[in-house]
What does this fold into?
Amino acid sequence: MKANKAPTKIYIPTILAANTVKYKEEGSIEYVRTDVFIEKAAEYLMDYEFNDSPTIADRRKRVDEFKKYMEGE
It folds into this structure.
């Protein structure tokens, strides 16, 4: 049996007249899981911001430091 995966985003719906609920509409609040946000940011840093690093190992080290910082460690 396949385990259920948690969604990467959840939306707090906008409730309209006559109890109509709309998701992903203007005015809805979007929440992103912290781990997903950190991974996407780390991916971006690895691909674009840390290109000046001389080695891949140095880039990975900087990304790991970023992850630790974001996780509050």
Observations:
- The first helix runs from residue 34 to 49.
- The CA atoms of residues 35 and 63 lie 14 Å apart.
- The radius of gyration is 18 Å.
